[in-house]
Amino acid sequence: MKPILDACCGGKMFYFDKQDGRVLFQDIRKIKTTLCDGRTFEVNPDVQADFTSMPYPDASFSMVVFDPPHLIYSRGKKSKFVDMYGTLSDKTAPTGWQKIKYGALYKDWRDMLSKGFSECFRVLQPGGFLIFKWNECDIKVSEVLKLTPQKPVFGHLSGKRSNTHWICFMKDR
Ligand SMILES: C[S@@+](CC[C@H](N)C(=O)[O-])C[C@H]1O[C@@H](n2cnc3c(N)ncnc32)[C@H](O)[C@@H]1O
What we know:
Layout: E1 4-6, E2 23-27, E3 31-34, E4 40-43, E5 47-48, E6 61-66, E7 77-78, E8 81-82, E9 88-89, E10 92-93, H1 96-102, H2 109-123, E11 124-135, H3 141-145, E12 152-158, E13 164-170
Bound molecules: S-adenosylmethionine (SAM).
């Protein structure tokens, strides 16, 4: 088993090496599409699975990376869209390159993210680290941190608008 799990790797944009052999890349989608600027965008995980119910035994990884969708679906307009399950549809859906790249949150986002946290900590070894990334566009990070009983160790704000939080948790030994 690889030591690091990325629970929702998307396009692996923050990796130095998108083929890093230490990381097991997981995402619910597997897609290849063309963005409006002509660039190809691909989500090609090693494992296609749902972070709310992951197919690994307890305590499998020494680090888990969790960068879930942070944009709310209801802001979407009608357009052709590859949805979070990889289906091209004409129904009301999030639009724009950001939503294609990052996925979207739905009405049940609290339930989804709290199950996601719980699964990330389940598959993490005692003393292991969870690296959580959150972009504070639609939902405050304080609201999201209420969805796990685990206590963060430290965090850092980054990004052009200083709204991207990087937060490190450690699972109790
Ligand atoms: C913010 S993006 C991740 C971006 C990624 N960290 C990067 O560097 O490119 C969120 C990803 O979560 C995925 N996702 C959404 N719901 C999921 C779920 N229930 N299980 C696993 N992945 C999910 C989306 O498909 C999307 O690729």
